[in-house]
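Structure catalogue
Derive tokens from sequence
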Amino acid sequence: MESDLQMAKKKFYAVVNGYTPGIYQEWENCEKSIRGYSGQKYKGFPNEKDAIEWYRDNGGDMELLSSEHRKIIEHTDNIIDATTFERKNDFGDDKSNMLYLKLSAKLNNAEKNIEPLTEELRSFCERYHFDHLNHEQKIAIQTITGKSLLFAVPGSGKTTVLIARTGYLLHGQKSMSITADTLMNLTFTRAAAQEMADRYSSKFPNDNDDALPAFRTIHSFCGGEILPLLRKRNFPMPQSVWDTDKLRNQVEMSKDTSDSEDDYNKTREPDKESVTSYTIMKAVLAHFKLSRKDESIKEKISGVITSIKNRQLKPSEYEEKVLVIDKKEYGVKDIYDTYQKELDKHHCMDYDDVLYYSLLGLKKYPDILRQLQSKYVYWSIDEAQDNSTLHNELLSLLVGDQGNLFVVGDDDQSIYYFRGAEPRLLLDYGLQDNVKTMVMGTNYRSGSYIVNMAKSFIEENICRADKQMQPNPTAGLGKINFYANLPTEQHQYQCIVSAAKNAQANEQSLAVIYRLNASAFPVMFWLKKYGIKFNATKDYQEIAYSKVFSDIINIMTLALHPGDWNAFLRCRFALSVHLNAKSINSMEDYLKNGRRVASILNWAMEIQPNISKYVQTAKDVLHKIKNMTAFDAVKFLLENLENINKNGRKSATGRLREYAVLSACTLFHRIEDFLTAHYELLHEEKNDLPQSNCITLTSMHSAKGLEFDQVIIIDTWAEIMECQDAIGDNELYFYDEEESRRLFYVAMTRAKKILDIYIPEKYFGKDESISNFVNDVARHCEVQSQLLPPLLPEKDMESDGLKYSYDQPHKYYGVRKGFRTGIFDNWDDVEKNVSGYSGTEYKGFETLDAAKDYVRGYVDEVYLLEYHELAYNMHNVQPGAYMMALDLPARLNLAILSWFNVPSLLKIPQDRLEAIKDNDICYTNDMSTNYHNSVDYYILVYMLVNFYKVWAPLYSILRSKHIKTCPRILELGPGPGTSTFSLVYFYSQLAKENPNIKFSLDYHANEKEEKFLPLLRHLAENYGSLAERTNYQVRFNFQNRDIYDGSDNIFDNGKYDLILESNVLNGNENFREDNVNKLVARCLNSLNEGGLLVLIEPADKTSTMIFKQIKSFAVNDFICCDIYQETKRVSVEGISLLKDVRTLGLRKEKKDIHWFSYAVFRKECAAK
């Protein structure tokens, strides 16, 4: 079979056996059809004719290659193939779906066939005080032979079970003589292994040292057992393993004062007795002239390297791939080879190589493998969801076909995809016929309110085992609090300090958990300021020496101490002082033996006069900040020194760093005070592990395996919590779109009693969008209790009286002539649209108004739109909310009343009211809902609460400049006009704020229920025309058509700028997979270039799966998907007619919140 690289160079691909047989022009689409398919059969060809002939000659289904199909293939740049889409599964790819269903069936079967407990197990539990364990836990303990997989939800007592099972093997069962030296217990970290060993010793104190079983990591097992045996055979491999000691790495980091292109050739040789991970990575960064202070660069490179090793990728699979760092492309193979050369240079291997060489060696020496297999007969693997392909292949080899393997894991807590760990690896193991599956589904850690919410939250993922987590029946409720009444970022930290004081006073453990370590920087300063001791899973020194923080601290230090050589070396590039290597060497030679100078910058001007201009600028900067407050100094530096956060300003991570250092400095009036706190934090005693009854700061990744009485999750913005960087077409990137949800789930399930989620309204005056995960948590909380938890704090918070504001420095660019004209707020987008364009015209401006004036007359009017009133109405920071509670427009209220021919809904005649009640709508999941006699009921009960839903996607489209002022619109299934007249009202607000711009809607709607049409026309006549606006007109065309009838006439053979559906693609509305597939494909084909498809559905897992499948289909050469995809809630408390509806007894629900999900897809202008 040809390699993927060879196949990718072909032009046509024929697939006879695959998930979707047919002819493909793109290798990526062909690969999706055959990857993982058993018995796949495919081949690539340079032309279409050869591909079709081979397909026919090898038994391909020719009906799939009709003349119409071939025509579509020939014009694949213009048409989307609906028949291809039909054969795809709507709920994720076939393999994921089948995996999920098969495993669910296996787990359900195991649950029905409850295994009895043996007398030996009962006796053991009573003797060693394990009788309090539940039946699920005891079944796991007595499972000692064969292959098994135990799914263990958070807080289910898996560590206790593993210890008890080990004890049972040695002291409980009598049928086999098992000794400690035949057992091997492996877990993920050294800390976890040590904890298990300590807990075992305390539970079984009579075991002497020789009788103690081993608790190790797989790396220590390989390094301690396999590699020594291989070295005796002179197996070719590096001599040593690099030093990952945390302190050694920090010492090297603190000594590293250079981050300069001139220093790359003079990097010191490390101590030959100790090569650290930092040693290797520093050399790699130096080779490619990359910053050593930017943690994100190191993480990106190390992540790709470890992914390649753990996934066991061949060079052909990544040799043409790149990494994009600071807008520049670096070959992945070059990076990987440079990294390996550095390891070879120092004759050492990294931790991944420990496993790799162990695997190779065992394959080469079967006798060593047999020796280990005969020695270790009983294996247990903890945290197996964190294992990679490399881990699993090695373990499979060690255990062998006859060995006993007890695997414990939770696919919902798999959060190391970047290291090669995937939930599917664990699920695949559970599907093997010879593997017994068990579930420990009771969470003994958290209160029932937290457990039930977390269960509903994680069930929105698709690729997972259904473990049906449940709370301990005797557990308390627990509390979930949303701190949404936090006006600024300062109030977030004030609440943390207050919570920390309360926790210490009540001797309760508390954790502050965050997505990125930069969030910890200000928290550390705030806790220190108020005398609160804390532990952190990442030391302050590691955070302080990272990008932005290091530059700020060292510039401040140099301002106060002009002769500080080390501070100068660390910040000189931020100050744009580019000394050459000769000058630096000369200066370093002079400073040896304790010599000092009064001012490094003055000295630099003397030694290298050609940079005097830049040095003087740096001196002016230092002089200005010297007497500023700490906050003003940082603000000045961020606004005036671009190099401090170059290329990072537009990213969420870059903004977070800036907010973090600004937040820390608000505590201190003088620079000296801030630096004093900095040095005290540097030298405070470090604790590696969180301790009970203390405050812990931890990232979400580091929080796994820990538990606390109270958990606070901070900085919960969408771009941080759901982070997925934009990637280039040829960039190597490992990402699992469901992992971010798993990570948030891990953070929440650390809480035993209280879970607090902090949502500051603004960060130094800037809005940051709330994460969808917070919205989902709020939704599930409401489902449980029928009301949203109260928003905290309930009273106004005090502040220091000072107002801190910071506007990130940026420019606006007006492009008059280019591939795409308009106004842009970053140079990257401008460059894409003007580079290579003949006769381009563009210019940069400091203000948006100036950019608007420049492009006026050259660009689409959407760039000139004002929408201040809309923005005001759309502002709401409460979880899930996106707008204030508004009433329906007055004219629409009157139009509805005139439909019933009454001045008030309370005046509806009794006979008509009874008829409305008799014809309420019965929704079903397996057939089309009948609305025939329920028009009045629908308008009163459903239209009112759903009216403003469409504003959420419309406002997103408006802000992203994709809206059109004169669009041709098609709505599918408008019903009585809920979204129709809401959209008309949205545009009327735009017309009101932009009287000099013409707005015109050509509105088409297809509704299959003919009884809705008179109502639609009535409302259009009495409300929709809006004749009083001279710059706004609407033309309606309502048709009685079934959108699922299979014909294309519902689209009038025209093209649309916007196609909209609301509550059409779900189980209540004639939902069938083939219907949805055909409909979406026709919608995409009927959009103009740049046209939008807006889907609005109930907020549930079915909608999530539908959107995911449509996304996988739509992301091709035509559609740029995922412009927006969110879950929101609309508050209806402001709708006056709804109060009368409740008085009439038509709507019995008391809650005033309605949840929904929406997705927006945009058709790209041209195929790539």
Remarks:
- The longest strand covers residues 1119-1131.
- The two ends are 28 Å apart (CA to CA).
- Confidence is low (pLDDT under 50) at residues 1-9, 66-92, 260-272.
